[in-house]
Write a structure and sequence with these properties.
The structure holds two protein chains of two kinds.
Chain A: H1 9-34, H2 50-56, E1 64-68, H3 72-78, H4 82-89, E2 113-117, H5 123-137, E3 143-148, H6 155-167, E4 171-177, E5 180-181, E6 184-185, H7 186-189, E7 205-210, H8 214-229, E8 235-240, H9 258-266, H10 269-279, H11 285-308
Helix pairs in contact in A: 1-2, 1-3, 1-10, 1-11, 2-3, 2-8, 4-11, 5-6
Chain B: H1 9-23, E1 27-31, H2 49-53, E2 58-60, H3 65-77, E3 81-88, H4 96-103, H5 106-109, E4 119-124, H6 139-143, E5 149-151, H7 156-168, E6 173-178, E7 201-204, E8 209-213, H8 216-229, E9 235-239, E10 242-244, H9 248-258, E11 261-268, H10 273-285, E12 294-298, H11 307-311, H12 317-329
Parallel strand pairs in B: 1-2, 1-3, 3-4, 4-6, 5-6, 8-9, 8-11, 11-12
Antiparallel strand pairs in B: 5-10, 7-9
Helix pairs in contact in B: 1-7, 3-4, 8-12
Classes of the chains: A alpha/beta, B alpha/beta.
Chain lengths: ~325, ~325
């Protein structure tokens, strides 16, 4: 990985801005849930912030992503507007999906956030179609499929990677390996140690990187993005990471190795990047505190606006089922 | 009037795909062996398409039903109109997550921001000794799923017009083709004609009893109507053409006129489309009919292999005729 392209100072700052937005947003979601103001199954992306941040700084608005129920980090990094996100989480009419999608179905096509699926593995077949559309139009746009290590064991993974390989689709499969498929460890569910080795079976490039390292993640993503844009086919990136808050909120994670978790939390990638930015003289603590404070205010404004907004009209029950009412 | 020589369903569907692709560059075709290198599929419905429109728009796929439907969904989210072929209807089971959880629901779950204007063509039907996994009629599953439309033509002209309409529709459409009658000739469609979705046809006028059917069962019902005509029974046959949404107006008008209703489909009778229509008619016509609404469908069993068993499975003209005679005595 020594020949990887490296993020410059401004790019590193932008990666941090996106990562800290995801972290602060996640903390606020949990706070609102604890206060009983949000009622939803919530799959915290805490600990996985660097992956979509270091990826999305190299994406265009027109590039598309599909993600899964644990996907607010992917969506926010791609540019999902905070106000639409919060109104959707709160089930309000002003949400991106008019309150009809919720946490697990966040959608915002203007920023390329095309599909959030609640079904393990289902981001991949659809991302192929988005990539196929870009391939037909020849616009150089690409599609991203996000999924977890657990999804690498569902049939959709095999069908999708094979089709992408055969059709040389401009798609990148980002396997965010947080080491647990729900409550099951990677070792207990997967016969290979490195999921990226499976790429060879689909005739595509595959690489395992430390997804919590901004340099590695940025470099691997940029190479894959350029490969896809050039029409040279798909890539499987296995981005190693760790899930801080269990499978979903309320999961105390009793099945998780305590020492492993303590080590991961001690190496929290967001404060680590913060410290690095200061150590390398890219910015100052004062500047970062101001940035974080500003993001906090934006989140608060989005939360308050969401709660103040009306719930959907009951007529929405049967709207948007078909193009025209039956 | 259209005085062109009769054509088969295969030719009608092939013409519909050719004409649609020529009219709209956003229309794509994908599926197993749909390209010309593979002779346009096992029956040749897609013959000539890839030669004419190129292999970018007409894509043969791996045997990967989930990936086929996923690719069609993704392309449709970006404004294309894919026509995906799932060779046999039983194989939809492999792609049910993509169809039911995604294609059907994305419009609603996104609050109308995205939609999936795709068609899934699939063929089925008993009669070829295929046994239990190649010829089921599974339309009820899809009709029971909000967000999907379900279409099942009975003749080549409708096949052409309905497929043109299905491709132009902004919602996902399950398009069910009957395999054993693929080679049965019928009047040719007028090029460019459309049959609107959700609109039934009166396939035969009558006054004593209404049969509501779709797909091949319409042909069997017409045969039965001919048989009982000799006994002086006048049967009206309503060809639903679209199963969901079904044409309540036409069915209710016919039922009101004749006072007797027999629902016929090749799918198993239990929990079938017939049950839904019968229940709906009962709410509207309770007390106004001359006899209870009756349903005819396959027994609650998998499709059998052995010829005598298979012949006894789906309603045919003779059994429909028996049911008509019986219903006239009610």
């Amino acid at each position: 990985m020594t020949n990887f392209p490296k993020p410059d100072a401004a790019t590193l700052m932008e990666i941090y801005r996106r990562a800290v937005l995801i972290k602060l947003n996640d903390e606020r979601v949990i706070k609102e849930m604890m206060a009983g103001k949000l009622v939803t199954p919530y799959y915290s992306p805490r600990g996985q912030e660097i992956i979509p941040s270091a990826l999305s700084v190299s994406l265009r608005d027109e590039d598309t992503i599909c993600t899964i129920y644990r996907g607010t980090h992917d969506m926010l990094a791609k540019g999902f507007p905070l106000d639409l996100l919060w109104a959707e989480l709160a089930g309000r009419a002003t949400g991106s999906c008019k309150g009809k999608g919720g946490t697990m179905h966040l959608t915002h096509p203007e920023s390329g956030c095309m599909v959030t699926t609640g079904v393990v593995g289902s981001s991949m077949p659809i991302a192929n179609g988005l990539a196929w559309a870009a391939q037909i139009e020849g616009n150089g746009n690409i599609a991203i499929a996000n999924f977890g290590d657990g999804a690498a064991n569902i049939g959709a993974f095999h069908e999708s990677l094979n089709m992408a390989g055969v059709w040389k689709l401009p798609v990148i499969f980002i396997c965010q390996n947080n080491r647990y498929a729900e409550h099951t460890t990677l070792a207990d569910s997967t016969a290979v140690e490195r999921l990226s080795t499976r790429a060879a079976g689909y005739g595509m490039a595959g690489i395992t990187v430390n997804g919590n390292d901004p340099d590695e993640m940025y470099g691997a993503a940029l190479i894959a993005i350029e490969r896809a844009r050039a029409g040279e086919g798909p890539t499987l990136i296995e981005a190693m990471t760790y899930r801080f808050n269990g499978h979903l909120m309320g999961d105390a994670g009793g099945y998780m190795d305590k020492a492993e978790k303590a080590e991961a939390v001690a190496n929290d990638p967001v404060p680590a990047l913060r410290a690095r930015l200061i150590a390398e003289g890219i910015t100052s603590d004062t500047e970062l505190t101001a940035l974080e404070s500003d993001i906090g205010l934006q989140i608060s404004a989005a939360v308050e606006a969401a709660y103040a907004a009306p719930y959907p009209d009951l007529a929405e029950l049967t709207r948007d089922v078909y193009a025209t009412a039956a | 009037m259209n005085d062109a020589k009769p054509i088969t369903m295969i030719e009608a569907l092939n013409r519909a795909l050719h004409d649609a692709m020529a009219d709209d560059p956003k229309i794509l075709v994908l599926g197993e062996e749909v390209g010309d290198k593979e002779e346009g599929g096992i029956t040749g419905v897609t013959k000539g398409l890839s030669t004419k429109f190129g292999t970018t728009r007409v894509k043969s796929t791996p045997i990967s039903e989930q990936a086929i439907i996923g690719a069609a969904i993704g392309a449709s989210l970006k404004g294309f109109r894919p026509v995906a072929e799932i060779m046999l209807m039983n194989f939809v089971t492999v792609a049910m997550d993509m169809i039911v959880n995604h294609a059907a629901k994305l419009r609603f779950m996104s609050g109308g921001q995205t939609h999936v204007p795709m068609v899934i063509r699939t063929m089925t039907g008993t009669g070829f000794g295929s046994g239990g996994q190649h010829c089921d009629y599974l339309e009820s599953w899809f009709a029971h799923t909000a967000g999907l439309k379900v279409v099942a033509p009975s003749n080549p002209a409708d096949g052409y017009g309905l497929l043109r309409s299905a491709i132009e529709d902004d919602d996902p459409v399950i398009f069910i083709e009957n395999l054993p009658t693929y080679w049965t000739p019928g009047p040719a469609p007028v090029p460019g004609s459309r049959v609107p979705l959700g609109k039934a046809a009166i396939a035969r006028q009558g006054s004593d009893l209404t049969i509501v059917a779709y797909s091949r069962s319409v042909l069997e019902a017409l045969g039965a109507a001919q048989i009982v005509a000799e006994k002086g029974i006048s049967v009206e046959v309503v060809d639903l053409r679209t199963i969901s949404p079904w044409d309540r107006e036409t069915v209710i008008a016919s039922a009101t006129k004749t006072g007797r209703v027999l629902l016929v489909h090749e799918a198993v009778r239990k929990h079938g489309i017939g049950a839904e229509i019968a229940a709906d008619l009962n709410e509207v016509l309770f007390g106004k009919l001359k006899a209870p609404i009756r349903r005819l469908g396959a027994p609650f069993a998998p499709v059998p292999f052995s010829k005598p068993l298979e012949d006894a499975f789906a309603p045919n003209a003779a059994r429909i005729a028996d049911a008509i005679v019986s219903l006239m005595k009610d």
